[in-house]
Write a structure and sequence with these properties.
The complex is a heterodimer of chains A (79) and B (518). Helix content of chain A is 51%, strand content 19%. With 79 residues, chain A is of the alpha+beta class. Chain B folds into four domains: 94 residues, OB fold (Dihydrolipoamide Acetyltransferase, E2P) (Beta Barrel); 143 residues, Response regulator (Rossmann fold), CATH 3.40.50; 107 residues; 50 residues, no CATH class. In chain B, helix 6 packs parallel to helix 7. The chains are: A alpha+beta (79), B alpha/beta (518).
């Protein structure tokens, strides 16, 4: 997971990775250079998660179907 | 006119109907009054002629109603009528004027009573289960944070509102509603189509593909929920590659789609909770992680800085390491020259003192002094020795002078003692010889005396005078009674004992009398 670019992680993966990074840093047994790299990764993960959380917009649409296939959407109102 | 007037006018204002008119009127009344009815009854005789229409009876214990399902409807019935089946029929009443009949046109037919439905449901469940459609291994995990949520439900009503409301509270998302009827005969095929339709959407296509699907419906009767028990729906749910949450009916209702779904929610609201996490909680968690991240890295740096400072403090300056040694060297070096000459002077001085004393006359003086002392001591020793010798000799002489008379005295005294003791011995020997014979004589005299006395006192002397002693069984007898009791008598005379035969007197007396008896 450490090899996967942060931007491609799902929220859950990013959250779990962040927990791991924090845990490693808190244990304090990481070399200084590595701890700085870890911190940078942690910050990136946090930003990624925060970004996903910020995109919390409600959008409700009704499917228009024809013969069992979705052919378009109509914004739902009043729901 | 009179005639006509006289004639009573029978119900002149009552219209007259033709048969068809009346039949038509009845038909209108019946159809108007019973345009939509639900009837519960038992299916009677069923016939299905080549026309494809279904003719059957609905009956209870007293009445019968003829029923027809037209060919077009017959294929859509949930269950086919079978004789004896308890059903609830939905349809309208009409008449058949050709036969003066009224009949029920049935459009929908459902098994009546939970028992019948449940039995059918169980049978279907078992069949689908045997196919492995409900296998837990098929179930997919629900994504933690889906971006798009597809909801298959009715777009009107409380269910979609509940779901959207809860999603809004927890984590507002992009929601796609696929509108379907949630009861009735169109329910099952449309729900199945909706599930398949969502799955058919391409990722990244013009319509977003959902990350999770919720199939939801509010509570209702078993019949209301029946569409979600249909095989077509169950199969669509099982085949869905998008994780699917079912929320059909109330918590206590279980429909077959619940078995095929990846998760089953007791209510639509609960389905929304399963679909998304709580955004505020996640934000809080993220904040705390961020804080811990900062702290963690900060602490790492701080601890290292502290450690560095501590070590640096403990590290001494290089000049400090040599300073005291240099100083000691300097001090020692400065004292080295003086100390050497001082030591030489001191040694020289003590040597001089000693050397001054080392002269020949010193030795001679000492020798003379020792010689004089020696001579003096030997003179005194000789005198002392002579005196002790004289004293010892004198003592010897006086002791030897006293020795001779004492020895003479001792010899005389011991000779005297010897004589006296020999005399005493002789006297004792004489007494020893005399003593036993004297004693023997006196004893034999005493014995003679005693024997004489015994003879006078014993009964033998008495026997000589004519007395006799009687013994019975070895014991002396002194009475007649004792003698009679004994078995053996003896009489002792002076010259011996006479034995008597046992009980002679009594036996002698009794024998003749007894003998005469024989």
């Amino acid at each position: 997971m450490a090899d996967k670019p942060v931007s491609e992680l799902s929220f859950e993966e990013a959250m779990a990775a962040l927990e791991t990074v924090v845990g490693q840093l808190e244990r304090g047994d990481v070399a200084l250079e590595a701890s700085i790299a870890l911190y940078e990764r942690g910050a990136a993960l946090k930003a990624h998660c925060a970004g996903l959380l910020a995109k919390a917009e409600e959008k409700v649409e009704l499917i228009r179907a024809q013969e069992g296939r979705a052919v378009g959407t109509t914004p739902a109102e009043g729901l | 006119m009179d005639l006509l007037d006289d004639t009573p006018e029978p119900r002149s204002n009552q219209p007259e109907f033709t048969v068809s008119e009346l039949s038509g009127a009845v038909k209108r009344v019946i159809e108007g009054e019973f345009g939509l009815v639900r009837v519960r009854g038992e299916v009677g005789r069923v016939s299905r002629p080549a026309s494809g229409h279904l003719y059957y009876d609905l009956k209870d214990d007293r009445s019968v109603i003829a029923a027809i399902t037209w060919k077009g409807q017959a294929g859509k019935l949930a269950v086919m009528p079978e004789e004896g089946m308890e059903v609830i029929a939905t349809g309208r009443m009409t008449t058949f004027p050709g036969q003066s009949k009224y009949q029920l046109i049935i459009e929908d037919l459902a098994p009546a009573g939970a028992g019948a439905l449940m039995a059918m449901l169980e049978k279907r469940r078992a069949a689908l289960n045997a196919e492995g459609l409900f296998d837990p291994a098929r179930k997919k995990p629900i994504p933690y944070l889906p971006q798009v949520i597809g909801v298959v439900t009715s777009p009107s009503g409380a269910v979609i509102r509940d779901i959207l409301h809860r999603l809004r509270d927890r984590f507002p998302r992009h929601v796609l509603i696929w509108p379907v009827p949630v009861q009735g005969e169109k329910c099952a095929p449309e729900v199945a189509a909706a599930i398949r339709g969502f799955n058919a959407l391409e990722p990244g296509g013009p319509i977003a593909r959902p990350d999770v699907i919720i199939v939801a419906r509010g509570g209702g009767s078993l019949e209301d929920l029946w569409g979600f028990n249909e095989e077509i729906v169950v199969r669509a749910a099982a085949a869905s590659r998008i994780p699917l949450i079912s929320a059909v009916g109330h918590e206590t209702d279980t429909t077959l789609i619940d078995h095929a779904a990846d998760r089953r929610a007791p209510t639509p609201t609960a389905a929304a909770e399963m679909a998304v996490p709580v955004r505020l909680e996640l934000l809080a968690t993220l904040d705390s992680l961020q804080a811990r991240l900062m702290q963690g890295v900060g602490r790492g740096v701080m601890l290292r800085g502290q450690r560095l400072r501590d070590l640096a403090r403990a590290l001494p300056r290089p000049e400090a390491l040599t300073q005291s040694a240099t100083q000691r060297l300097d001090t020692a070096a400065s004292r080295l020259g003086g100390a050497l000459s001082l030591a030489v002077v001191r040694k020289h001085r003590s040597f001089d003192a000693l050397a001054a004393k080392m002269q020949p006359n010193a030795l001679q003086t000492m020798l003379a002094r020792r010689g004089a002392a020696l001579q003096d001591q030997s003179t005194r020793a000789k005198a002392l020795l002579d005196r002790r010798l004289d004293r010892a000799r004198d003592r010897l002489q006086s002791l030897s002078a006293r020795l001779a008379p004492t020895l003479t005295n001792l010899a005389a005294r011991s000779a005297r003692d010897n004589t006296r003791q020999r005399e005493a011995l002789e006297k004792l020997a004489q007494r020893l010889d005399a003593a036993p014979s004297l004693r023997l004589k006196s004893l034999s005299e005493r014995l003679d005396r005693l024997d004489r006395m015994r003879q006078t006192l014993g009964h033998h002397e008495t026997l000589k005078r004519g007395f006799a002693v009687v013994y019975a069984d070895g014991q002396v007898v002194t009475s007649k009674a004792a003698a009679e009791k004994s078995s053996h008598l003896e009489i002792e005379f002076q010259d011996g004992r006479l034995s008597l035969s046992p009980r002679p007197p009594r036996k002698a007396k009794d024998a003749p009398e007894q003998g005469s008896l024989f």
